[in-house]
Structure formats: C-alpha cells, structure tokens
Amino acid sequence: MHILFVLLVCHLISSGYGYKVYSYEENTDISYPTLSRYKRDTKSSSLETLSSNVTRILENLLRDYDKTERPNYVSGKATQVKVNMLIRSMGPISEADMYYSMDCYYRQYWTDERLSFVGFHSSSNQQDIRQLSLNVKMLEKIWKPDTYFHNGLNSYLHTITRPNKLLRISEHGDITYSMRLTIKAKCPMMLSSFPMDWQSCPLVLGSYAYPASEVVYTWDDPKNGVGYAGELQLSQFDIKKTEYRNLNITRGSGAGSYSVLQVVFLLQRHTGYFLIQVYVPCTLIVVLSWVGFWINREATSDRVALGVTAVLTMSTIALDSRTDLPKVHYATALDWFIICSFGYCMATLLEFAGVHYFTKVGSGEMFFFSQEEEEDEIIDDIQSEEIAFIQPQSTTTTLDAVNKIYGMPQMNSFDSDFEIQFRSPSCHIHGNQVNHTGSNGKKIFSPASLSACGDSVSVHSSSRPVSTQTEPKPSYWNQLWKCIISNQEFRKAREKEARKRGVTVNSVSRIDIVARYLFPLSFFCFNMLYWFSYFQGQAHFDWKEHELSGGKRII
User: Fold this and answer.
1) Handedness of CA 408, 409, 415, 417 (dihedral sign)
2) Which of 29, 192, 356, 422 has the largest CB neighbor count within 10 A?
3) pLDDT in tens, 407-455
4) For residue 366, how many other CB atoms are within 10 A of its CB?
5) Nearest 5°: CA angle at 51, between 47 and 54?
6) Cα dist. 104→84, 168, 218, 453 in Å?
7) What does the H/E/C string look like for 261-285?
8) 420 strand-pairing partners
9) Do the strands 226-228 and 79-94 form a parallel or antiparallel pair, or are they unpaired?
10) CB 401 within 8 A of CB 437
11) How far is CA 367 from CA 41, 374, 376, in A?
C-alpha cells in the first residue's frame, strides 16, 4: 500500500511540471514567427507602395506625350542641349588615310518639362523617388536630339552585351542620355615636318535637322567640356592640348544657321621609332661609305662594291619608309634626310670614279703610245737620270734595246736613231756582244752587256736636240677645270710626270685626302641645319587654321 501511494504522488507531480514546460515552449514558438511576419508584411507593403508609385509615375509620364515635337516647341524657345565627353582611349591614328578614332562616353543633357513628375518622399523608410533610371527602350518613346558628327567616317555604338546606353529622368524633367561610342573622324594632316610634326585633329558635332533657332548645343562645363579617363598612352603621339568652342555654321545658301560644337586635339608625334628605324641606319650607312677614302685606289673592286652596296641599302630604306605614308605631292622632313644621305653615298661612289679616271696612273698598267711620244719619253727619262750624252762612231742601238732596259713594250722601228756609248773604264764591249742587228739593219747591244755597264750608258738622238727647260706647273684651279672637262692633253702630261718619277703604285690621292675631311664636316653641318630647322619645341595653336565654312563663333 505504501508503495502504491508513493508511485501515485510521483505521477501527479511529474504530470504537473510537464504541463508547465509544455505551455512555456508553446508560447515561445508562437511569439517569434508573429514578430517576423509583421516586419515582413510591413516591408512588403512599403515596396508595394513604392512600386505602385513608380507605375503611377510611368503611366502619367507618357500620357498625351508627342515624341515628334521637341521640348519648348509650343513656347517657341530653342531647346538647349548640353554635351560632355569622357575619352577612355584614342587610336589608331593613320597618316595614310588621315583619320583618327577614339573610344568615349558621349553624354547629352536637356530639359523636357513634359516628362516632369511628382516625386515620392518617405522619411520613415528612406524610400525616395527623385530620379528614374529607365530601360533604353524608353528612348524610343521620347524625343532625342538628332546629333551627328560632321567629319565622322565610321562611328558606332557598343552593343556587347547589351546596348551601352543610359537614360535618367529627374522629377523636374531633366534628362541625362549617355552612350559609349567609338568615333572615327577625319583628320587633315600636313606632313611637311614629318616625323617632327604636330597634328591637330578636330571633331565637329551638331544637329542634323534642327537649325540654331530650334536647337542650341553648348558644352556642359565651359572649362572642362572634354575629359580623359586617366592618362592616355598613345603609341606615336602625346596629347598636348585640347581646345573646344561653340559656333554657328551655314551649310549652304538658304539652308539657315546650325549650332555646332568643335573640339580640337593637339598631338605631338614621338620620334623615337623613326630615330631607331631610319635616322640611325642612314647615318651609319653614310659613315660606312666613307671607309673607301682610306682604301688604296688600286682596290677598284672593293671600293666600287662598297659604294654600290651603300647606295642599294639607302634605296631599300627609302622605299620602306614611304609604305605607311600617304602619296603626298611634297617631300617630308624624313624624305629630305634620306635624299641627302642617298646623295652622300652617290657622291662617295662618284668621288672614286674621279680618282680612278684622273689620278690613277702609273699603277702597273701597260700604256702603249705612238712612236713620237715614245721617243720623247725615252729622252726625258734619260735626262732625268743625268746620263752624259756622247756622239759615238761605231756603237748604235735602236729603240727596241732601250725599251727592254726600261721595261717598255717592244716596237718594230722608229724614224730616229739613237747611239749609245759607255764611258766606264771597267766596261768593255767586244765584238761578239754587239755583233747582231735589228730589224732596221742597225747594230743592237745585248741586254746583258748594257746591264753590266751600270749607269755609264750614254744615249744621243741624232734627229732632234734635247731641251732641258721645264714648263711652268698649272694652278690647282686650272688642273681642276681640265679634270672636269676631261682634257686629254692634261691627262697625258700627268701620265708622263708619273713615269718620270718612276711611280708604280699610287696608293694615296689628294682627292681622297681632301674627301676624308670634306665629307664628314659637310655631313655634320647638314645635320645641324636639318635638326635646327625641323625640330619644334612647342607648336602654336590658332583657331584660324580650323575655320569652318560659314562658321561664326558664339561668345
């Protein structure tokens, strides 16, 4: 009995505590979902209110709206369109086709009071509607400026992954229309100073159909109408300056005046590429052609090959440098440098031709002359050696024997007779040494007997007297003029002088010696004049160089 009573009491106690625990847990589970649901319902109702307001705004926005009429059409006032440009990148810039391209954000701002609305302001949940960011399809339902680029060539809108456009409308009817464009426009270039040139590339934009009395274009910020996204890096140019202005132009008689905006980009070309690819190679080739001045004039094939190679290399560089340039009717600064370098290489080759033709005498070639010239030369040679002349009775020789002694070509017969006698006591000529005759019946000394007598041989000509008087030497200017006109008498006289001196190798010419100093000095002076004339530190910008036909600037 006691045991049953104890079990019953324990059961009642446990049942009472379980009810209380169950009640607590149940109340806890019910309170939290109720609070969150309340908050969610409140937020949902706020969003629904906001959405309904936006829907109501959009429904009222285009009610009785005519997109074919410009803003302020009823009042007759001109619609003002403000423009702003942010350039992301620029290039390429082509000299051959004379155009440039750039990637930019092109923004237009105007006010259309027909699109104004009553904004939604709520300070409790911080939900404000002061400006609407709309889908680009909304652009098809409202009026937009018909802007176009006067000097544009092939501009396009970026459409990846969607058309890069932005449209915003404020509660006061202020519209912001932005798009990302790649603009390709004409850039007239003057390449007379290429590659040390400055180029100014313009961009002109305005309305295609609306005259200035209906649509007026202005820069959004007069001091910063065109901006750059960071520091732009161009391959061949540096952007030094950007100028822009507003003006009105006329397109023809009776067409009216149109409002346009003009911006000019002032560009300076980099010369590093052309210094490496053209100027330095041309200079080195010219200097290399001067090596021939230190090569002996007898090395004809070496000097000619060096000169021809330099000329052909300059021709290749000249043709390659014109590949990327337009076929203009005038010569550029680069053309003048290549032409002068080509001229120096040609002058080097012609200099050796002059050396070879006018001064390369007595260098081992065999010259054949007439009988009268041979007689005069033999007499002059013997006189220069101070050989005594004696009139013998029995010992005679012909010119053939003397030719053998002096290494001259053998001749058959001459009109003059020469007699040779030896005055050396140690030289005796016996009958068996001279007892033979030549083709003309005269007795001839054998070479062995004459060579054994040394310088004791004496020769006398019975046909003409010997003159010891020397002729005056012509001046250098006279010699130069005779070389230019190719005077044959002067050339023969130079040849006679060379043979008198016994010259067999003429390694150095006075022309070569002068050319060693004249060519480098003149080339240095040419470079100083060239770089001083074409190099410009800072270009001067003038709007007169960019006047538009019928243009009138608006102050």
Assistant:
1) positive
2) 422
3) 555 544 444 444 444 444 444 444 444 444 444 454 444 444 444 444 4
4) 7
5) 140
6) 10, 19, 18, 103
7) EEEEEEEEECCHHHHHHHHHHHHHH
8) 459
9) parallel
10) no
11) 124, 11, 15
C-alpha span between 84 and 78 (Å, rounded): 19
Instruction: Look up residue 528 and give its DSSP letter.
Output: H
User: Token pair for residue 241?
Assistant: 């300056």
- Retrieve residue 295's tokens: 């090569």
Look-up: residue for tokens 């004459």? 450
Distance, in Å, from the CA atom of 248 to the CA atom of 218, rounded to the nearest integer, reads 11
Give the DSSP per-residue string, 374-391: HHHHHHHHHHHTT-----
CA distance 431 to 284: 71
Asked if 242 and 266 touch (Cβ cutoff 8 Å), the reply is yes
DSSP letter string, 445-512 = --HHHHHHTGGGEEEEESSS----PPPPPPPHHHHHHHHHTT-HHHHHHHHHHHHHTT-------HHH
Contact of 205 with 261, CB cutoff 8 Å: yes
Question: Residue 94: which of 185, 192, 181, 155 has the closest Cα?
Answer: 185
- Give the pair of three-digit tokens for residue 473: 């030497």
Question: 189 with 95: CB under 8 angstroms?
Answer: yes
pLDDT digits (tens, 9 = 90+) for 337-373: 999 999 999 999 999 998 888 776 544 444 444 555 5
Q: What is the C-alpha radius of gyration for the chain, rounded to an integer number of angstroms?
A: 52
Give the residue with greater pLDDT, 389 vs 219: 219
- Are 267 and 238 spatial neighbours (Cβ–Cβ below 8 Å)? yes
Region for 380 from its dihedrals, namely left if φ exceeds 0, alpha if ψ lies in -120 to 50, beta otherwise: alpha
**Token pair of 137 as six digits:** 């399809």
Tokens, residue 258: 């149109």
Q: Which residue type does 247 have? A: L
- The per-type count for the chain, helices as H runs and strands as E runs, is 12, 15
CA atoms within 13 A on the CB side of 107: 17
Q: At what angle do helices 333-354 and 510-534 cross, to 10 degrees?
A: 170
pLDDT at 414: 40
- The closest alpha carbon to 134, from 111, 167, 158, belongs to 167
Contact yes or no for 100/89 (Cβ under 8 A): no
Of the pLDDT bands very low, low, confident and very high (cuts 50, 70, 90), residue 87 is very high
Maximum CA extent, the chain: 196
